Amino acid sequence: MPAQDLEDLSFGDENSLDIATWNIEWFPKNNQITVNYVIDIITLLDLDVLAIQELDDTDMFEQMLDSLTAYTGYYESNWFAG
């Protein structure tokens, strides 16, 4: 089965609340390349609420948020072992 193109994805309309979660797994793995790729994906998804897990670099996360002018965001640190 071929991979689905990001442009082919569609979500609700103006009358729906689109919520997603994304375990981004130690963001950013490839520094700016990853940041740019994630910015493109988030912009195309056009979600109302997005929760992201496993941020490794909060400075790069802040840089990403600065580029996503249609969004606001914050992060919480919750390290645990087990």
Please outline the helices and strands.
Layout lengths: L18 E9 L4 H14 L3 E7 L2 H10 L15
Parallel strand pairs: 1-2
Helix pairs in contact: 1-2
Features:
2 strands; 82 residues; alpha+beta; 2 helices; single chain
Could you explain how this protein is built, in words?
The protein is an alpha+beta fold and 82 residues long. It has a domain at 17-67. It has two helices and two strands, in the order βαβα. Strands 1-2 form a two-stranded parallel ribbon. Strand 1 (19-27), helix 1 and strand 2 (49-55) form a beta-alpha-beta unit. Helix 1 packs across helix 2 (58-67). The longest helix has 14 residues, at 32-45. The protein is globular, with a radius of gyration of 14 Å. The mean pLDDT is 86.
Overall outline: globular
Oligomer category: single chain
Radius of gyration of CA atoms, rounded to a whole number:
14 Å
Spans of at least 5 consecutive residues with low confidence: none
Mean pLDDT: 86
State the major sheet: 2 strands, parallel
What is the CA-CA span between the terminal residues?
Answer: 37 Å
Work out the helix count.
2
Structural class: alpha+beta
Strand order within the widest sheet?
1-2
Residue fraction in strands: 15-25%
Estimate percent helicity: 25-40%
Number of strands: 2
